[in-house]
Write a structure and sequence with these properties.
17 strands, transmembrane, OB fold (Dihydrolipoamide Acetyltransferase, E2P), Elongation Factor Tu (Ef-tu), domain 3, single chain, 4 domains, alpha+beta
Length: 407
């Protein structure tokens, strides 16, 4: 087989004109290589361990953890007296405000006139009750005296009746004897008839005395029954008078309640936020002041929009900035989420001038409350919620992770 090229041509091409290339190794090349490798490694480490923190800024307010008790006016009226001052520690039932709903007419104060009339009627009934008690006692004494007199009369009548009966018996025997003698002719018939007439007269006298005795007995029985019924009758009359007095007292109490109303503390706590002054007219259910329950702690109530609520949970760190204490001077304060509401609420329900965007109510425990500045309920604040933290590597590969998750 013939060759394509001559051996002489091939040998000529294999000869090098400048000899073998020799690369010289220097320390600068090694140093640069190590330097750039270190930079790449550092960037990889930085991307793996350093990243960005997602934050959300929301608004809120300082509130007590046990809530705020609202003291309201039960009805419209005028504040006549304020019994406590801002910051006082009150016990349950302590009077705080005194209101009056006094109405006036051309003749003067209407409620006062009604009270005077009711007091006059109660005084009249009280006098009637005393008189009724005196009359009952007098009547009892009168009945007892009449019974005593009737019993004396009855005893006297019994004695007289016994004598009359004895006399009648004697006349009856005498008349019988005279009648026998007259029949025999020993005595005149006129004498026997006269004795018979005397006997009839004495028997009639006995009948009269017996009728009188029966009448006295009936009077005694009637008075005895009346004496027995007297306490019951007197009690009924006294009860009726007392019932009328109680009704008048109830009317007076209701009238006084309408006229003068005392607003008392519903629980033990510290009085705060008095919004009325003495002499001010108020309407029914109008807030007069607030009561902070005893032993309550202040916390922050945040209103987190739904777009930022996904990663908010108990324990989430919060940075707080109070509007009353500029953070440029006083710095930020730490807190932790204590509670997250289960459902959303409308911000307009809490703040009438706010938008109707639904929010979650988040309660934040304040890590420190012993600052030189005193926090007060109702202070406005803004807060930064530390939601999540991602490294640079996660941010870089997030699209790829999302694609793999969909695949």
């Amino acid at each position: 087989m013939s060759r394509l090229f001559r051996p002489e041509a091939v040998a000529h091409k294999n000869q090098r004109l400048h000899g073998t290339v020799v690369l010289a190794n220097t320390w600068s090349h090694v140093a640069l290589t190590i330097f750039f490798c270190a930079i790449v490694i550092a960037l990889i480490v930085f991307a793996c361990y350093h990243g960005f923190t997602r934050k959300e800024t929301v608004d809120g307010v300082v509130v007590p953890d046990l809530g705020v008790i609202r003291l309201v006016a039960p009805q419209s009226g005028v504040i006549t007296s304020i019994q406590a001052k801002e910051g006082d520690l009150l016990q349950v039932g302590a009077p705080v405000f005194v209101l009056t709903s006094e109405r006036t007419s051309a003749k003067g104060a209407t409620q006062a006139a009604i009270n005077d009339a009711l007091s006059s009627r109660m005084a009249h009934l009280s006098r009637e009750l005393e008189q009724q008690s005196i009359q009952s006692g007098n009547k009892s004494q009168e009945i007892n005296q009449r019974l005593l007199n009737l019993n004396v009369s009855l005893k006297r009548l019994d004695t007289e009746l016994a004598l009359q009966r004895r006399k009648t018996d004697i006349l009856r025997d005498l008349s019988a004897n005279l009648s026998s003698l007259a029949t025999e002719g020993s005595v005149p018939k006129n004498a026997a008839s006269q004795k018979a007439a005397e006997l009839i007269e004495q028997e009639s006298r006995v009948s009269a005395l017996e009728g009188e005795r029966l009448s006295i007995q009936r009077d005694i029985e009637a008075l005895t029954a009346l004496r027995s019924d007297l306490p019951l009758q007197s009690g009924r009359e006294a009860s009726s008078l007392k019932r009328s007095m109680e009704e008048l007292k109830q009317q007076a109490s209701e009238n006084e309640a309408k006229r003068q109303i005392v607003v008392r503390a519903d629980a033990s706590g510290r009085l705060a936020g008095i919004v009325v002054d003495q002499g001010q007219a108020v309407s029914g259910e109008q807030r007069l002041a607030s009561l902070l329950p005893k032993d309550s702690q202040l916390e922050a109530e945040l209103y987190v929009p739904t777009r930022a609520a996904g990663f908010v949970r108990p324990g989430t760190k919060v940075l707080l900035r109070y509007d009353a204490f500029p953070y440029q001077k006083f710095g930020q304060f730490n807190g932790q989420v204590r509670e997250v509401s289960m459902t959303t609420i409308s911000l307009a329900e809490l703040k009438p001038a706010a938008s109707a965007e639904p929010v979650y109510r988040v309660r934040v425990r304040l890590d420190k409350q012993d600052q030189p500045q005193t926090l007060k309920p109702g202070m406005q604040l803004s807060a930064t919620l530390v939601l999540e933290r991602r490294t640079l590597m996660e941010w870089i590969f997030e699209p790829l992770l999302g694609i793999s998750g969909r695949l």
